[in-house]
Amino acid sequence: MPNPDRDSFGSVEDLMSYLSAIETTVEGEVAKIADHFDSITDNIATSLRTTLGDHSWLPKRTRPSLPPPTRTATSMGYLEASKDWVSRHRAITAAVVCFLGTGAFLLWRRRRLYRVKRRAKRGKNGQRTDVVILAGPSSAPITRSLSLDLERRGFIVYIPVNSLWEERMIQAEAKADIHPLHLDVTSTSSLTSTIRKVTELLHPSETPRYPLRLVALILLPQTPSPPQSQSIAQISADSWSDAFSIHLLSPFTLLQAFLPLLTSHQSSVLFINHTNSPSLSPPLHGEANVVAHALDSYVSTMRKEAAAIGDINIVQLRLGALDYESDRNAHQMAVALRYDDGAAPNTRYDSAPEQKVRGSPFRQLHLEVFDAIVGKRRGTVYVGRGSRTYDILGKVIPQGIAGWMLSLKTQKDQGPDRKKANDVASAWQASPGWERVDQVSGEEST
């Protein structure tokens, strides 16, 4: 502390600064004494607490509680920091793991699906022995694509036909193992004769040939396309009758006729149908919705009765969006039908669908069909973009919301093209009925 003389203060300001210096010095000394006293008190208290806490003769209630151990901050490495972050964000970690795991599984499954070599079984002499009946419109691109792929993989393919035009179309492929099979589902005698010929073909009695085996019956029931904008009140009774006869009665009758052969050979039955639009039951598509749901009910009932029917594998392939341009055979057929004025009636509607969204490649359908034939696929198989998504949305979304959204889209689509759609519908209604077309085709074939 400074100790100046009495005459050293020249002014009042010097006196005040001297007094403030004294005050600051006194406060610092007092703080040091207080801190030293606090440390001594804490040491004494800690010593007493530790000494008394270690003695067992004191009751537990009277023993002083020991202070928690002090944690020293240490620098964590990357692994420790990652573990700490995961423990603090478990929900985000679970979501990331599920997303990455699902993506990795889908990629692995697709690579495994494409890498496996798929070929039909052959006899000891290298002869083809597996027969597949592909029942679908011969003019449809999907029918041509599947028939050529199955023939390339070693199957003998038979396509049912009931007109000379369809027979010539199949013969134009110039494939030794793709044959037309004359069949008229409306005639009992024709069905019986065809089944007898197929039975003789599978079990020859005279020619020394390796016996054949019917491995699969593939049904391609097409959903009715024209006209696309008709309400339930506008659909006539003849239209309902034609839709049920063509798209439901024909495949059901064909399956009923071949059921004994399928049971004896323990074959597979494949139903292939488009399900994106019918899954949501959009308005103004009454015929397509009714046909699709009736087919689903038929397949479900047949699966439940499979034990009583026989040891056959029933598979339904629900198709989504497929890229016709990815398959050269299907694309050529679609383009040919779109610009061929001499094609069979109504084939331009069902056989060459136009898509606004790029779909999955046709190869995916080929692989799934082969796996279903050999028994690697059972139940329901989703093929194509959007097939599983539309099916889930149709079951989860309330009908009111789905109908409202689809009605908005329908009104938007029908705005400038309303007159054109009505003209197409009128032309389709004015065209001759399918029964008359089949009758004329039968006369030409005879």
Compact overview of the structure:
With 446 residues, this protein is α/β, with parallel strands linked by helices. Helices cover 56% and strands 11% of the residues. A seven-stranded parallel beta sheet has the order 3-2-1-4-5-6-9, sandwiched between helices. A two-stranded parallel sheet has the order 7-8.
Tell me about this structure.
This protein has 446 residues and is α/β, with parallel strands linked by helices. 56% of the residues lie in helices and 11% in strands. The protein has 17 helices and nine strands. The protein has helices at residues 12-54, 78-88, 90-115, 141-152, 164-171, 188-202, 237-265, 276-280, 286-304, 306-309, 328-339, 347-350, 362-373, 387-396, 399-414, 418-430, 434-445; strands at residues 130-135, 156-161, 178-182, 213-219, 268-274, 313-319, 322-323, 360-361, 379-383. Strands 3-2-1-4-5-6-9 form a seven-stranded parallel sheet, sandwiched between helices. Strands 7-8 form a two-stranded parallel ribbon. Helix 4 links the parallel strand 1 (130-135) and strand 2 (156-161). Helix 4 runs antiparallel to helix 11, helix 4 packs across helix 13 and helix 7 (237-265) runs parallel beside helix 9. The relative contact order is 0.09. The model is unreliable at 335-354 and 415-446 (pLDDT under 50).
Keywords:
446 residues, alpha/beta, seven-stranded parallel sheet, two-stranded parallel ribbon, 17 helices, elongated, disordered C terminus
Strand percentage lies at: 5-15%
Could you give the order of the helices and strands? HHHEHEHEHEHEHHHEEHHEHEHHHH
Helix proportion:
55-70%
Radius of gyration: 41 Å
The largest beta-sheet arranges its strands as 3-2-1-4-5-6-9
Structural class: alpha/beta
Distance between the termini: 135 Å
User: What ranges have pLDDT less than 50 throughout 5 or more consecutive residues?
Assistant: 335-354, 415-446
- Strand tally is 9
Count of discrete alpha- or pi-helical segments spanning 4 or more residues = 17
Can you give the mean pLDDT?
A: 76
Principal-axis shape equals elongated
* Biggest sheet character: 7 strands, parallel
